[in-house]
Amino acid sequence: MAERAVRLILNVSHLRLAVALSFLTGFAVDQVTKATALAYLTQGSPIAVIPGFNLSLGFNEGASFGMLSGIMAGNPLAMAAMTGIITLGLAVLALRSRNLWEAMGFALAVGGSAGNILDRLRRGAVTDFLDVYWRDWHWPTFNMADVSISVGAVLILISALPAVRKSYNHA
Which of 30, 119, 128, 131 is catalytic? Predict the structure, then answer.
């Protein structure tokens, strides 16, 4: 019985470590890349990297990929509060999860979301700089926080697969 309890504590500790590292990775990569974009890019002057991909500085007052930008324009505190509430909920899910993939997915989403919230509070809008396009069609400009949130969502979906759920549960 005591051995099982020790193994459970070690598993939960490793899970919490994975959550913390996932959060910090999502947040830190986002903040470093945004600071770099702000230092080296000029709004309205995209830099071609490879065909289909530019670095192009922009600012988004809405949610991911520009959603709600018309409604939230000029209301960064309201947008920060709304996303903050959602982010807190995701953080609780990350800490309660006993599945490695699911916990890391929620933590990556929280890290990315926290990076965007910090942008809203500091600048009134989120700094975007990744521009993916095909011919004349451009996906809304985004940032590494959006990538972190998207990768987190994929990990959460993967965690729902029966084989993954069974193999990576720590409870």
Answer: 128
